[in-house]
Design brief:
This protein has 429 residues and is an alpha+beta fold. The protein is built from 17 helices and 6 strands. A hairpin with a 7-residue loop joins strand 3 and strand 4.
């Protein structure tokens, strides 16, 4: 959500950073120092050739001076401040990000790390409170400790025991100590966190998505494969937790089915010919729309296709899968904006939705979104209907293809104060 009115301020900050005098910069671009002073104080608008000349002298891109920091970085910084309920200068967020992008990215990364740690704590808390396997393991440990203590107290109680009884108690203590060691080892293994020699993944889906991001969500080795190759592909991913491997195996099953129905070369050619219209592609390949949306999101990023993200949610509003792209990300923890088509699709199951999603701000990203909510799993009489919504997000598409929908990332960092869907006040003033 860059502020175009701060172009002059960004010019001044960059000039001071490189140690260039105002008079010298003005002379280099052929204007008077007084006129440059008006520009730097945002009293004169600047664009075109003059902006390009100043950017060249300051060794930055004209876009960086005119638009400022990346909108996604600004959103992450504002989200970090909102999550920590910190009293900071929210109105100067763009100035901070534009002047110190390295520090800003570090702050955003640390905020994400804190959020992940909080999620990890919540996961462990839930496991301690509700997990029957953990409760059973703890009971086993306590039972073994109690048995050892009981036998030991008899041996040291002062009562005279014959050699036969002493031998029995010693054997009981030995057997219970073996049982205690085994149950303790199992408990530690059950609660063990990832090794310190690699990135920490605190939820199985985070681990899967981290691996997929390394491949840009395109699994070249999975193209044209089937169940016979699945085990080797799962092992190749080197996922740490059994839960993550199970989730990846599920993802891989869908990926292979989509690829078998829509082979890569034929699908990529058809996608270009259809201008990436999911409905046209579904008709051409006889595929369900969620399959087409998933397949489009796996097209290789180095093959001149537009950048495409993907979000899958359940009816509670929880994100089950997320492929972010530049400018598009949705919060995994906490409530996001309910106006995204992936959520509004639940109001009309089976009906495809197309919308042009526009984030707040004059130069904020704009995305063309396709979404549909459809039944998931088996369907039977008297069984509850389970719905999942799939949304494809396409960048750099012509304006006017679909009706414009104003969306945000989360209410706390959204400047649209009159939005009917707002659930809490904004922290941006």
């Amino acid at each position: 959500m860059a502020n175009v009115g701060l172009t002059g301020s960004r010019i001044r900050e960059r000039r001071l950073d490189v140690g260039l005098r105002q008079a010298d910069l003005a002379k280099s671009v052929g204007i008077s120092p007084s006129y440059l002073n008006l520009i730097e104080h945002n009293r004169r608008r600047i664009a075109g050739k003059l902006l390009s000349q100043i950017a060249q002298c300051l060794e930055v891109s004209a876009d960086q001076l005119s638009r400022g920091a990346d909108s996604a970085l600004l959103d992450r910084l504002r989200t970090a401040a909102a999550d920590m309920q910190a009293t900071v200068e929210m109105s100067r967020t763009e100035e901070m990000a534009g002047r110190y992008p390295g520090w800003s990215n570090l702050i955003a990364a640390q905020a994400h790390r804190l959020s992940s740690l909080e999620e990890r704590v919540q996961i462990l808390t839930d496991r301690i409170t509700y997990d029957p396997e953990l409760a059973g393991s703890l009971h086993e440990v306590i039972s073994a400790v109690t048995a050892i203590r009981s036998a030991a107290s008899i041996l040291v109680g002062g009562e005279t025991l014959d050699a036969d009884w002493q031998g029995r108690f010693h054997k009981n203590i030995y057997d219970d100590s073996i049982r205690l060691a085994a149950s303790s080892e199992a408990l530690i293994g059950y609660l063990d966190a990832p090794d310190a020699d690699g990135p920490a993944h605190f939820a199985p889906m985070d681990e899967v998505e981290s691996y997929l991001s390394e491949t840009h969500f395109h699994l070249a080795d999975a193209e044209g494969t089937g169940p016979a190759e699945s085990a080797a592909l799962v092992a190749q991913a080197k996922l740490r937790s059994p839960a993550a491997r199970a989730l990846f195996a599920q993802y891989l099953e869908n990926y292979q089915a989509d690829a078998a129905l829509m082979p890569l070369d034929a699908f990529a050619t058809a996608a270009r010919a259809c201008a990436y219209d999911p409905i046209a592609l579904a008709a051409r390949f006889g595929a369900a729309l969620p399959q087409v949306l998933r397949r489009l999101a796996t097209l290789p990023s180095d093959a001149s296709h537009p950048e495409m993200g993907l979000a899958v949610a359940d009816a509670s509003g929880a994100l089950l899968f997320l492929k972010p792209i530049d400018g598009f990300a949705m919060p995994r923890a906490g409530a996001g904006c309910p106006l995204w088509p992936v959520f509004s699709a639940f109001s009309t199951p089976g009906q495809p939705i197309r919308a042009e999603a526009r984030l707040p701000g004059a130069n904020a990203p704009r995305f063309l979104c396709y979404a549909i909510a459809s039944p998931f799993g088996s369907v039977g009489f008297d069984a509850p209907q389970v719905l999942r919504a799939t949304m494809l997000v396409v960048s750099d598409q012509p304006a006017g293809i679909a009706k414009e929908t104003h969306v945000g990332v989360a209410c706390r960092i959204c400047t649209r104060t009159t939005c009917l869907a707002r659930r809490e006040p904004t922290t941006i003033v």
